[in-house]
Amino acid sequence: MFHDRADAGARLAARLRHLRGADPVVLALPRGGVPVAAAIAEALDAPLDLLLVRKIGAPGMPELAAGALVDGTPPSIVLNEEILRRLRITDAYLEAETARQRAELERRRAAYLRGRAPVPLTGRTVVVVDDGVATGATMRAALRGLAEAGAARRIVLAVPVAPPEVAEALRRLCDEAVILETPPDFQAVGLHYGRFDQTGDEEVTTLLDRAAARIAGGR
C-alpha cells in the first residue's frame, strides 16, 4: 500500500538510484503519473517532461483503439493492424483522426508546459512513469512509440503497481522495468493507495513548473 503518489515516487526513486549519473529524462503520463514522476525526477536531479498518448478511435466506436498517437518530435503513430483489417479502416479516416488527435496533443502540451519546448531525448536514458497500470494499453503504446522513434539510448519503465501478466508484457517493451508490486489479485490501481485523489490540471502545471525551475537554477 502506498500512502499517496509522492510516496510511490519516492519508493521508485530508491530503486532507480543507479540512473542518477546516466543523464536521465523522466517522462510522466498525465495526469496521475506526474506526482509520481516529479518525486523521481527530483531524486535523480533529472528534467521532468510529459509523454502524452492519444487514442485513435475506430469509426463510430471511439473507445476501440485503432491505434495511438505518442508524443514526440515528431509524434509516433502506433497502429493496431488487426483492428484496421477487421474494420477495413481507410487511410483517409486514419489520416483525419490522427490529425485531430495531434491537434489535441499539441493543445494539452501547450497548456501543461506553458509553451516550454520538449526536453530532448536523443542519446539519453528515458524513464517512463505512471501511477500504476491496469490493462496496459496506454503504456504499451507509449513504450512502442518511444522505441520506434529511436531517439532514446535506453528506455526504463517505472510504475508502482501492475497485474502480473501486464507487467510481464511491458518488461518486453523496454530495456529495464521497475515495478514495485505485481499482486495476483489485482483489481484496480487506486486500491493500492491510501490516498488516490484525482490529479488536477493545476497540480500538473505546478509540478512541471517547479521541475523546470529546478533544472534552470542548477538545483
From TrEMBL:
<protein>
    <submittedName>
        <fullName>Phosphoribosyltransferase</fullName>
    </submittedName>
</protein>
<dbReference type="GO" id="GO:0016757">
    <property type="term" value="F:glycosyltransferase activity"/>
</dbReference>
<dbReference type="InterPro" id="IPR029057">
    <property type="entry name" value="PRTase-like"/>
</dbReference>
<feature type="domain" description="Phosphoribosyltransferase">
    <location>
        <begin position="6"/>
        <end position="173"/>
    </location>
</feature>
<keyword id="KW-0328">Glycosyltransferase</keyword>
<dbReference type="Pfam" id="PF00156">
    <property type="entry name" value="Pribosyltran"/>
</dbReference>
<dbReference type="InterPro" id="IPR000836">
    <property type="entry name" value="PRTase_dom"/>
</dbReference>
<keyword id="KW-0808">Transferase</keyword>
